[in-house]
Each structure stands twice: as structure tokens, then as C-alpha cells.
Specification:
Number of helices: 10
Radius of gyration: 17 Å
Shape: globular
Distance between the termini: 45 Å
Strand content: under 5%
Largest sheet: 3 strands, mixed
Length: 209
């Protein structure tokens, strides 16, 4: 029996809960993922459990091995399905391993958690993920294992400090804020940068630029 992805399941169910709470107007609104509505972000998250590996790689090949282009096409295609169908697919496969082997559980947790915040921040919803999920994401990013989503070289020589979850990493100029703001800023969501404090923020901003 394949190993069940409990942390991925938690992140995916949390994402499904968020989508269930949105109105039809919100589902057609904007997110921090440029060009994607919340429903298209949902479709992207669903693609990793709904699209088989051969089909997934076929889409990547058709996009001339540009993963971003392939992801966009798959998200827009899946988003044609009813929202309830997509949510049910995500819930029913919450602990299923992603079809793409390189997309391990830690990467899946990070992807689902960050995209939930892309939706919330885009819609102006003042809510954050469960603290344990945020801490897991930050620790995973700091471990250097989060490629291709995050390159840990970005935080070399900086001291990261979350003020609401148990997370401290590195040494050097300090970058401090909520765990959620740290996570979003490190993943190049500019709206989170003003929420951070410390003498390392300017250096982080320059690196992101």
C-alpha cells in the first residue's frame, strides 16, 4: 500500500475548506497568482492528483517543457469543470501522492498552503493557515529541499524569526514577522514584505528584486 500523505492531506483539505467558503463572485475574483481566479488556483492544486503522470508530462512536452506554461494550461482546462466536482476530487484524494514524483509531500504541503494564501490575500480575506502548516512550510523551505519552488540561497546570511509560530533559522541581519508573512515574502509575494521588520529586510528585498 502506498504511503499516505497526512500533512499533504491536511493542507489540501484546508484548501478545499477555503474554496467551499467562497461565493460565486469570489471564485471569479483575483488572486496573487497573476491571471488566475480562485477557481483556477483550485484547478492547479487538483491537477496533481487528477492528471496522470503520462498525461501531465505530455502537457509539459506540448508546452516545450515550460512547466509554468503547462501548469497554466492544465489549470484553465480543469477549471471548466464545476467547482463542487473539483473540491470533491481534492477531498477524496487528499492523502494521495502527487502524480509527478519530483513533487514530494513537503513540496505539496507548501504549494497548497501558499496558494490558499494567494487566494485569501487576493480577495482581502484576513485569515491565516494553521500554525503547524506554516511552521512546516518554513522549515521545509529552510532545509533546502523546496526546489523548484524555493531556492534556500535566498536566505543565506539572514536570521529569520517568526513571532507567532516556533520558527527560527540562520544567523545575521534579522527578518521578522508572522510565519505567514515570512512564508509569503520569501516566495516573492511583494504584498507581504511591508509586514516584515528587522535590519535584514532591505537585503531580502534586494535579493528578491
Amino acid at each position: 500500500m502506498a504511503k499516505q500523505w497526512n500533512q499533504a492531506g491536511e493542507a489540501r483539505v484546508a484548501f478545499a475548506d477555503l474554496i467551499d467558503s467562497l461565493s460565486d463572485e469570489q471564485l471569479a475574483g483575483t488572486t496573487l497568482c497573476e491571471g488566475w481566479t480562485p477557481k483556477e488556483v483550485l484547478a492547479h492544486v487538483v491537477s496533481f492528483v487528477d492528471v496522470s503522470f503520462p498525461k501531465f508530462m505530455g502537457n509539459v512536452a506540448k508546452a516545450k517543457f515550460n512547466f509554468d506554461v503547462a501548469s497554466d494550461r492544465m489549470a484553465r482546462s480543469l477549471a471548466r469543470r464545476p467547482t463542487a466536482d473539483l473540491v470533491a476530487t481534492l477531498r477524496n484524494n487528499a492523502t494521495k501522492a502527487a502524480a509527478v514524483p519530483i513533487f514530494a509531500e513537503g513540496l505539496t504541503v507548501l504549494d497548497a498552503t501558499v496558494h490558499a494564501q494567494d487566494v485569501r490575500r487576493g480577495l482581502g480575506i484576513d485569515e491565516t493557515p494553521d500554525g503547524d502548516l506554516v511552521r512546516h512550510c518554513l522549515e521545509f523551505m529552510a532545509s533546502g529541499k523546496a526546489k523548484p519552488i524555493f531556492d534556500a540561497k535566498l536566505i543565506e546570511g539572514l536570521s529569520l524569526q517568526a513571532d507567532d509560530v516556533e520558527f527560527r533559522h540562520g544567523s545575521g541581519p534579522v527578518v521578522e514577522g508572522t510565519g505567514e508573512a515570512l512564508m509569503m515574502a520569501l516566495l516573492d509575494r511583494p504584498s507581504a514584505l511591508p509586514e516584515l521588520t528587522g535590519d535584514g529586510v532591505d537585503q531580502l528585498r534586494q535579493r528578491l528584486a
